[in-house]
From TrEMBL, chain A:
Cellular localisation: Cell inner membrane
Residues binding [4Fe-4S] cluster 1, per UniProt: C370, C373, C376, C419
Gene3D superfamilies named among the record's database cross-references: 3.30.70.20, NADH-ubiquinone oxidoreductase 51kDa subunit (3.40.50.11540)
Species assigned in the record: SAR92 clade bacterium
Cofactor: [4Fe-4S] cluster
Molecular-function GO terms, alphabetical: 4 iron, 4 sulfur cluster binding; electron transfer activity; metal ion binding
Entry's Gene Ontology cellular component terms: plasma membrane
Keywords: 4Fe-4S, Cell inner membrane, Cell membrane, Electron transport, Iron, Iron-sulfur, Membrane, Metal-binding, Repeat, Translocase, Transport
Domain of life of the organism encoding this protein: Bacteria
Name this protein carries in UniProt: Ion-translocating oxidoreductase complex subunit C
UniProtKB/TrEMBL annotation, chain B:
Record keywords: 4Fe-4S, Cell inner membrane, Cell membrane, Electron transport, Iron, Iron-sulfur, Membrane, Metal-binding, Repeat, Translocase, Transmembrane, Transmembrane helix, Transport
Enzyme class, UniProt record, top EC level: translocase
Entry's family note: Belongs to the 4Fe4S bacterial-type ferredoxin family. RnfB subfamily.
Residue ranges occupied by any 4Fe-4S ferredoxin-type domain in the UniProt entry: 112-141, 142-171
Alphabetized InterPro entries for the sequence: 4Fe-4S_dom (IPR007202), 4Fe4S_Fe-S-bd (IPR017896), 4Fe4S_Fe_S_CS (IPR017900), Elect_transpt_cplx_RnfB/RsxB (IPR010207), RnfB/RsxB_Proteobac (IPR016463), RnfB_subfamily (IPR050294)
Cofactor(s) this protein cannot do without: [4Fe-4S] cluster
Quaternary state and interactors: The complex is composed of six subunits: RnfA, RnfB, RnfC, RnfD, RnfE and RnfG.
Origin species: SAR92 clade bacterium
4Fe-4S domain sequence ranges: 38-96
Main subcellular location: membrane
Protein name (Swiss-Prot/TrEMBL): Ion-translocating oxidoreductase complex subunit B
GO biological process assignments: electron transport chain
Length: 569, 202
C-alpha cells in the first residue's frame, strides 16, 4: 500500500453522484446546428480555415491553431458551414466570441482517418504533433492544450506521470462512467502519453474511494502493466492538480510553478482517452463524455456529446422541466458558473450540465457581514487566509492581497461553501485577481509608452541639434563671404589660384596636346577630301567654302604642333 | 607623544575624538562622491505612478515633467487620465492627504483610443507630429493609421487634424479582457452607524 499524504482543509459536500450512474453512456441524435467557439481552451483563439458555404466532413479541421498556445477545432459532424460570426458562448461573462456554425446533413461522413497503432515507432515529437493536430485539450475543466503540456514536460526530466481520475466535484460522473466502460482505452492513452514523455519512472492513477466500480475496472485493465492505481480518500478538492500531486507524492508544487517544474505531469483520465483516440484511431477531439443531471432533468445520465451541441438540444432529449429549474449551471455546483441562456453550445471543457430544482440548489441567501469565525481558513486546501483576503479584496489592497498569496487560490469554492454568512468569497478573489492582472498590464503598457515618449524626445532633440549645426554653418559662410567681397584683389588672387590648381602636370598636358594634334590632322584630311570632291562636282561657292575650311584645319594643326614643341622644350 | 597623551586624559580624548571625526567625515565624503545619485529618485518613483499618457492635461509637456514638478512641490491632483487611484498612490508615496481630482484639468474618463477614418484622411502628417508616443503610422499624402496597442488615448492628435477625421473611441471590453466584478448584493442586515440611519432619525 502506497503512503498517502493528507492535504489541509477540504470539505465534504453531498456527492449526488448516484443518480447519473444508473445508466451507461448514452448517445444523442445529431442536432440540426452545431456552434463551435474558436476559443475552447487556455491560450489564443483558433483561426477559421473554412468559408461560409463550404461542405465539411466529420473530423475535418475547420479552424487551425494560431500562436504558441492554441488548439485547432474540428467539425463534429458532416454538413455545411452556415456562419462564422460572434455568438454568445458558455463563459461567466455571458459575452460573445467568434464561432463557426455548421448545419448538419445528418449523414456523418467521416474524413479519412489515419490511426497509428504503431505509435512507438514514431518519435515523441511526432506523437505530440499528432495530439496537437487533433485539438486535444485538458478535459478536466481548465482546457490547457495537451500537446503543449506534454511538450513542456519533455523539456524537463519527468519522473512521474499522474493520471487524475479523482473527479471530486459533486454531481459529475463523466470520468467515472468513462473508466467503467472504457478503462482499456484509457490505459492505451496512458501508454501514448508515457511514450511522449520518454517513459516516466512511475505512473500513478489517482482515484477517489467513492468510485468502487471504476477502481475495479482500472485495476483489471492495469493488471499486466506497471501502472499503479492509487485510491485516495474522498474529499473535495482532492482533484485539484496541486492537491493530487501532494496526496500521491507528498511533494508540493511551489507557488507560481507547474508540476513539470518538480518533474511531474498531471493529465485527466478523460484527456488520456482523447489522446488514445487521437493517436491510435486518428480521430480528432469532436465529442466528449458529459454528465446531464439535476432534479429538473427527467433523466440523469452521461452522454457522449458532440462538441458544439446546444445545451437546449441536450435538455430537450432529457425530459427537462423548465419551471422546476432554479438555474442552469455549466460545470459542477462548486466551481461551475450559471448559463445566461440554454442556447449556448457545449465546449471541450464542459464536464457537466447541472439543472437543479429550486429545493436542490436554492437561490443564494443574501450576504451577511463576516463574523471572523475562521471556518473558511480551516476549509482552505491551499492554506490561505480567506477572511483576510476578503477584507483586502474589499479595500482593493493589491499589495496585501499578493502578500497573502491570492494567486495560490485555486478558486475551489470550499470557503464559500462553509461560510455561515453566505459571502461569495471566490467571486471577490476572482475580481481581485482580475484587477491585479489589469493593473499589471496597465503598468507594462505605461512603461512602453514612457519608453516611446522618451525615445521620441531624444529623436526630436537630435534633429533640432542637427538643424542648429547646419544653420550655424550657413551663417558662418555668409558672414565670411560678406567680409571677403570688400577687396577685388582678393577675388582675382583666388581666381588665379583656382586656375593654377586646375593646371595639370606636363605629362598630362603633352598627352592632351598629342591627342588634339591627331584630331586636328584627321579633321584636315577630312576637309581635304571634301575639297577634292567639291573641286570635282561642286559649285564655285562650295569650292571656296571647302578651301577655307581646309585652310582653317591646317592652321589648327600648325598651332597645335607649335604648342607641343614649346612644351617639349 | 604617547606619554603626553597617557598622562593628559583630556588631551587624549580630544585627539581621539577629532581623529574619529576626521576619519568618518572623510569616509562619508568619499561615499557621497562614489554613490552619487544622478537624478532625484522621487521623480523616478512619481513618474512610475503616472499613467504615461503624455497628454499634457496637467499643463506640463509629458508625465516626467509633471513628476518633476510634483517633486518640487506642485499639487498632485492634476492628472485626469490617472484619476483618483493615481492621486491616492502618489499621496501614499509622498505621505500626504489625497485630494480629489482638480476638475480644471479635466475629468476622469474611460480609456479611449484614437481611430482615423482612413478614407477621409488627406495625409497631412499633422497628427503624426502631434503624437507623443509615435503611435501613428503614415507618410505625406498617404493615408495614416493608429497603432492601437501603442495609443495612450491622449487625444493630442484630434486638434491638429484639418479634416476632423480622428475619433476617440472607448476601448470595448471583449471576452479576453472581461474580469469578474465584486459581488453586488451586499444587503446590510445589521444596524450600523451609517449616515442613512442618522438621517432617518433626525
Amino acid at each position: 500500500m502506497r503512503q498517502l499524504w493528507e492535504t489541509p482543509g477540504g470539505v465534504h459536500p453531498p456527492e449526488n453522484k448516484v443518480q447519473s450512474l444508473k445508466l451507461g453512456i448514452g448517445h444523442l441524435a445529431i442536432p440540426e446546428k452545431l456552434i463551435l467557439p474558436l476559443i475552447q481552451h487556455i491560450g489564443d483563439a483558433a483561426k477559421p480555415c473554412v468559408a461560409i458555404g463550404d461542405v465539411v466532413l466529420k473530423g475535418q479541421k475547420i479552424a487551425s491553431a494560431s500562436g504558441d498556445l492554441s488548439a485547432p477545432v474540428h467539425a463534429p459532424t458532416s454538413g455545411v458551414i452556415s456562419a462564422i460570426e460572434d455568438r454568445p458562448v458558455a463563459h461567466p461573462s455571458g459575452m460573445s466570441a467568434l464561432c463557426i456554425e455548421i448545419i448538419s446533413d445528418s449523414e456523418e461522413r467521416w474524413i479519412d482517418l489515419y490511426g497509428h497503432t504503431d505509435y512507438k515507432q514514431l518519435s515523441p515529437q511526432e506523437v505530440s504533433h499528432l495530439i496537437a493536430d487533433a485539438g486535444v485539450t485538458g478535459l478536466g475543466g481548465a482546457g490547457f492544450p495537451s500537446a503543449a503540456k506534454l511538450d513542456n514536460g519533455r523539456t524537463k526530466p519527468v519522473n512521474t506521470l499522474i493520471i487524475n481520475a479523482t473527479e471530486c466535484e459533486p454531481y459529475i460522473t463523466a470520468d467515472d462512467i468513462l473508466i467503467r466502460e472504457r478503462a482499456a482505452e484509457i490505459i492505451q492513452g496512458i501508454g501514448v502519453i508515457s511514450h511522449v514523455l520518454d517513459m516516466p519512472r512511475r505512473i500513478l492513477i489517482g482515484i477517489e474511494s467513492n468510485k468502487p466500480e471504476a477502481i475495479d475496472a482500472l485495476r483489471e485493465a492495469c493488471k499486466s502493466t506497471a501502472i499503479e492505481v492509487v485510491v485516495v480518500p474522498t474529499k473535495y478538492p482532492s482533484g485539484g492538480e496541486k492537491q493530487l500531486v501532494y496526496i500521491l507524492t507528498g511533494q508540493e508544487i511551489p507557488s507560481g510553478q507547474l508540476p513539470s517544474d518538480i518533474g511531474m505531469v498531471c493529465v485527466n483520465s478523460g484527456t488520456a482517452f482523447a489522446i488514445k483516440r487521437a493517436v491510435i484511431d486518428g480521430q480528432p477531439l469532436i465529442s466528449r463524455i458529459m454528465t446531464v443531471t439535476g432534479d429538473a432533468c427527467g433523466i440523469n445520465r452521461n452522454y457522449e456529446v458532440l462538441i458544439g451541441t446546444p445545451v437546449s438540444h441536450i435538455l430537450e432529449k432529457n425530459k427537462f422541466i423548465r419551471k422546476n429549474c432554479s438555474r442552469l449551471i455549466m460545470g459542477g455546483p462548486m466551481m461551475g458558473f450559471s448559463l445566461s441562456s440554454s442556447e449556448l453550445p457545449v465546449v471541450k471543457t464542459t464536464t457537466c450540465i447541472l439543472a437543479p430544482s429550486h429545493s436542490e440548489i436554492p437561490e443564494e441567501d443574501p450576504q451577511q457581514p463576516c463574523i471572523r469565525c475562521g471556518l473558511c481558513a480551516e476549509a482552505c486546501p491551499a492554506s490561505l487566509l480567506p477572511q483576510q483576503l476578503y477584507w483586502y479584496a474589499q479595500s482593493e489592497d493589491h499589495e496585501r492581497l499578493q502578500a497573502h498569496n491570492l494567486f495560490d487560490c485555486i478558486e475551489c469554492g470550499a470557503c464559500s461553501y462553509v461560510c455561515p454568512s453566505n459571502i461569495p468569497l471566490v467571486q471577490y478573489y476572482r475580481s481581485s485577481k482580475g484587477n491585479i492582472i489589469n493593473s499589471r498590464n496597465a503598468k507594462i503598457s505605461a512603461a512602453k509608452a514612457r519608453e516611446r515618449f522618451e525615445f521620441r524626445q531624444v529623436r526630436l532633440n537630435k534633429a533640432e541639434q542637427a538643424r542648429e549645426v547646419k544653420r550655424e554653418a550657413r551663417r558662418v559662410a555668409t558672414e565670411k563671404a560678406k567680409t571677403s567681397s570688400s577687396s577685388a584683389a582678393d577675388i582675382i588672387n583666388a581666381a588665379n589660384l583656382r586656375a593654377k590648381a586646375r593646371q595639370a602636370s606636363p605629362d598630362q598636358q603633352k598627352a592632351k596636346l598629342e591627342r588634339s594634334l591627331m584630331a586636328a590632322k584627321m579633321r584636315l584630311d577630312e576637309a581635304q577630301e571634301r575639297l577634292a570632291e567639291a573641286n570635282k562636282s561642286g559649285s564655285a561657292e562650295q569650292q571656296a567654302q571647302q578651301h577655307a575650311s581646309v585652310e582653317g584645319a591646317r592652321q589648327k594643326v600648325e598651332q597645335t604642333k607649335r604648342r607641343l614643341e614649346e612644351l617639349i622644350r | 607623544m604617547i606619554e603626553l597623551l597617557t598622562e593628559n586624559i583630556i588631551l587624549a580624548a580630544l585627539v581621539s575624538l577629532v581623529g574619529l571625526g576626521v576619519l568618518f567625515g572623510g569616509l562619508l565624503g568619499y561615499a557621497a562622491e562614489k554613490f552619487k545619485v544622478e537624478s532625484d529618485p522621487i521623480v523616478e518613483q512619481l513618474d512610475e505612478l503616472l499613467p504615461q499618457t503624455q497628454c499634457g492635461q496637467c499643463g506640463f509637456p509629458g508625465c516626467k515633467p509633471y513628476a518633476q514638478s510634483i517633486a518640487d512641490g506642485d499639487a498632485i491632483n492634476k492628472c485626469p487620465p490617472g484619476g483618483q487611484s493615481t492621486i491616492n498612490a502618489i499621496a501614499k508615496l509622498l505621505d500626504v492627504a489625497a485630494p480629489s481630482l482638480d476638475e480644471e484639468h479635466g475629468e476622469e474618463e474611460i480609456r479611449t483610443v484614437a481611430f482615423i477614418r482612413e478614407d477621409e484622411c488627406i495625409g497631412c502628417t499633422k497628427c503624426i507630429q502631434a503624437c507623443p508616443v509615435d503611435a501613428i503610422l503614415g507618410a505625406a499624402k498617404l493615408m495614416h493609421t493608429v497603432i492601437t496597442q501603442e495609443c495612450t488615448g491622449c487625444d493630442l492628435c484630434v486638434e491638429p487634424c484639418p479634416v476632423d477625421c480622428i475619433d476617440m473611441l472607448p476601448i470595448e471590453e471583449d471576452i479576453d479582457q472581461w474580469r469578474w466584478s465584486i459581488p453586488k448584493n451586499q444587503h446590510q442586515l445589521i444596524a450600523t452607524s451609517s449616515s442613512t440611519v442618522h438621517e432617518t432619525l433626525t
